[in-house]
Structures are given as C-alpha cells and as structure tokens.
Amino acid sequence: MITKRKGNGxxxxxxxxxxxxxxxxxxxxxxxxxxxxxxxxCLMEKLEQLQQENQELKEKIKTYEDPEDLTLxxxxxxxxxxxxxxxxxxxxxxxxxxxxxxxxxxxxxxxRELDLENQQKExxxxxxxxxxxENDIFSVVRxxxxxxxxxxxxxxxxxx
Length: 160
Description:
Elements: E1 3-4, E2 10-12, H1 14-18, E3 24-26, E4 31-33, E5 36-38, H2 40-65, H3 70-77, H4 79-130, H5 137-153
Antiparallel strand pairs: 1-4, 2-3, 4-5
Helix pairs in contact: 2-4, 4-5
C-alpha cells in the first residue's frame, strides 16, 4: 500500500539513493511503499517494474500451458510443472492486485497534489487582490507581510 508521508523533516528517497542520485527530499513530497520512502518519479518507476514482472510471469505461464514440443509436454504432465504453474499464477494474481492498488493510490496522490497546488495559487491571488485596495494602508502592510511569509513557506512558487 502507498501512503503519503507527513511531517516537516527530510528523508532520502530509497529509489534515488539506490541509483546514486541526490536523494534528500522533504517528507511531505515523499510516499511510503514497502516500508521505504520514494519520490513520485521513483514510485512510477517501481510501478513500471511491477508491470514488467507481471508480463514476464504471464509469459512463463503461457509457456507451461501451451507447450510446443514433447519435452515441454512431459514437463507439463509432471507434478512439479503443475505446482509451478499454480505458483506462477498465484504470484501473478498477487502482483496484479498490488499493481492495481499502487496505480489507484498514485492517481489519488497526484490529484491531491494538484488540488493543493491550485489552493495555494488561489490563496496567493486572494492576498494579492487585497493589495489593490490601498485605502486601508494598515491592512495592505499586514497583507504584504502575510503574503511574503506564505511565499517563503512554499518556496516562492506561483509568483506572478
């Protein structure tokens, strides 16, 4: 299961670290999958890797179910081959379930990220629009302070 990490600290992305890349990220930008922290890009790579593994398992099952020569036919009849087929099918089912949960979770996280970004833009626009009313100079100064602090917090994103 994928969960969005919370907190104000920093953690290394497991995927980036494995690749030897700079891995330090704010916890609020990371996801936990298999008890390891991943950035969104590494999480998507993990999803592709699982899809590839699923495809390979499907091909292995097909090889055992549709033998092309007598050697494979004898293997198919052997009890070990039948056990292997059951094992591969179970692995495939488990990976497909996990892949679907990962896909649904990733889509949900991406939508929440987009919603949050839109809310931030809307709030900045609201504060900047308040600055247009220069009749109340005390409010304008106060709004400027709030707007500046907010922009510092989100890293200067979304400025006009």
